[in-house]
Specification:
Blueprint (H helix, E strand, L loop, with lengths): L1 E6 L7 H11 L3 E6 L1 H6 L2 H8 L15 H4 L8 H8 L2 E7 L1 H9 L5 H8 L4 E5 L3 H5 L1 H12 L3 E2 L3 E4 L5 E5 L3 H12 L9 E6 L4 E2 L5 E2 L6 H12 L3 E6 L10 E4 L3 H11 L5 E4 L6 E3 L18 E3 L3 H8 L5 E8 L3 H11 L4 E6 L11 E7 L4 E8 H23 L1
Parallel strand pairs: 1-2, 1-3, 3-4, 4-5, 8-11, 8-13, 11-12, 13-16, 16-17
Antiparallel strand pairs: 6-7, 9-10, 14-15, 17-18, 18-19
Helix pairs in contact: 1-3, 1-10, 5-7, 6-9, 11-15, 12-13
The structure holds cytidine-5'-monophosphate (C5P).
Cytidine-5'-monophosphate binds next to helix 13 and strand 16.
């Protein structure tokens, strides 16, 4: 996804650097355009260093003149038209009252407003301003005009403002702006209507009040699935061991042990149309965790382990008709064979089998790859970022859903 990030002059301009990082984390390529006002608050160099691209600042001399970013490749040949066509989405954050007025009236007196007029990409605006400026009838009328033309508005939040007043006008949360951008830019809405329950992270099984048995799972695969599913229009509930992910606009339930994950999955399963178990659930737990911290005494310590409940199998048995279930199989050898065995034994619709023998991909890593196994076919998932792999898995889910519906009708 190619995002053109326009930044206007306001105290919140520094937050655009955070937005840039968040968009990059979600796999976007970001080109920054600063207005003259923005340059008073934050330098082009900050954005050039973060984006690795020259920052564009003027209609007449688009590339910045500071020496560090001048050495970076100039991204475009013919200024505003090229830039406007390059973008999949234009976001203006923060957008000042002045910029909203210019957009509403089609004025094009600087690079950013000219691009806004020239682009055919969706436009997202995240305003930030003084509360009285926000409520002013002129600003509200401009917003009404922009909304009626399909501009996506990320409403400002309420709170203490830079001017000392309290009220609406603070730039919305970065996560909220990022999800509005994804929503606007992503034309694939093939999961609209799906309610997807996703598990992420590795479970921790108590040994005593301070120690646990765990695994190397980071939760990145489950979180990537949640991000991608939201962007494709699904409603998502994430059951995770990794802590709250502030950029995700969905219900998140924190759990720690396999037993807690089981309770949460079984509780939410009846409302879900699909369950994706990307979590690395412990297979064994300590049979009787100590109530007190275990003291160092003898040379050897033996812990008795017992099996944890197999959540995936239980969910497959208890699901309502029509609920799709996808499991994961992290294997270090005979990856496909083991995956096929799990597909049969756990009675699920698909298994994503991945090889976790290396350190560059799989558990805890940023990359992943493998094979998605179905009863009647298999799909190779080439080594890629977890976000890309999530997109492929969800594409297969959407296909599976269409297949099932066709079979019923
Ligand atoms: O049997 P195995 O642990 O390899 O199966 C992996 C799949 O089963 C994953 O989708 C994992 O989330 C799920 N699982 C589970 N309950 C367990 C162990 C694994 O739901 N106790």
């Amino acid at each position: 996804m190619k995002v053109l990030l326009g930044v206007c002059g306001g105290i919140a301009a520094y937050k655009a650097a955070e937005l840039l990082r968040e968009l990059q984390r979600q796999g976007a390529e970001v080109q920054v355009v600063l207005t003259q006002g923005a340059e008073k608050f934050i330098t082009p160099l900050t954005f050039a260093a973060l984006s690795g691209r020259q920052v564009l600042t003027s209609l007449w001399n688009p590339a910045v003149s500071d020496s560090a970013s001048a050495e970076m490749p100039q991204p475009f040949g013919i200024e505003h038209i090229d830039i406007a066509q390059w973008a999949d989405v234009l976001v203006i954050a923060p957008a000042t009252a002045h910029m909203l007025a210019k957009l509403a009236h089609g004025m094009a007196d600087d690079l950013l407003s000219t691009i806004a007029l020239a682009t055919t990409a969706p436009i997202v605006v995240a305003p930030a301003m003084n509360v009285n400026m926000w409520h002013n009838a002129a600003t509200q009328a401009n917003l009404k005009t922009l909304r009626s033309r399909g501009v996506h508005l990320v409403e400002p939040a309420s709170g203490e403002l830079a001017c000392g007043m309290v009220g609406e006008g603070r730039l919305a949360e970065i996560g909220e702006i990022a999800s509005a951008i994804l929503h606007a830019a992503n034309p694939i809405r093939d999961l609209a209507g799906e309610r997807i329950l996703i598990t992420a992270g590795g479970t921790r099984e108590a040994v005593d009040p301070v120690r646990y048995l765990g695994n190397r799972s980071s939760g990145k695969m489950g979180i990537a699935l949640a991000e991608a599913a939201l962007a494709r229009g699904a409603e998502v509930t994430l059951i995770t061991t990794t802590g709250r992910v502030s950029s995700l606009r969905c219900k998140q339930i924190q759990v720690e042990s396999a037993e807690q994950m089981r309770t949460a999955v079984l509780h939410h399963l009846p409302q879900a149309t699909t369950l994706i178990m990307a979590a690395a659930v412990a297979d064994y737990r300590v049979a009787t965790p100590s109530e007190q911290k275990i003291k160092k005494s003898s040379e050897h310590l033996t812990l008795e382990l017992e099996r944890t409940p197999d959540i995936l199998s239980e969910a497959a048995r208890l699901r309502l008709p029509g609920t799709l279930i996808i499991g994961f199989a992290a294997e270090t050898r005979h990856v496909s064979e083991e995956g096929r065995r799990k597909l049969r034994e756990k009675d699920v619709d698909a298994i994503v089998a991945n090889d976790v023998s290396g350190t560059e991909s799989g558990i805890g890593a940023d990359l992943n790859g493998g094979t998605m196994l179905f009863a009647d076919r298999e799909v190779t998932l080439p080594l890629s970022t977890k976000r890309k792999m999530a997109e492929s898995i969800l594409h297969e889910l959407a296909t599976l859903r269409v297949d099932r519906l066709q079979r019923i009708s």
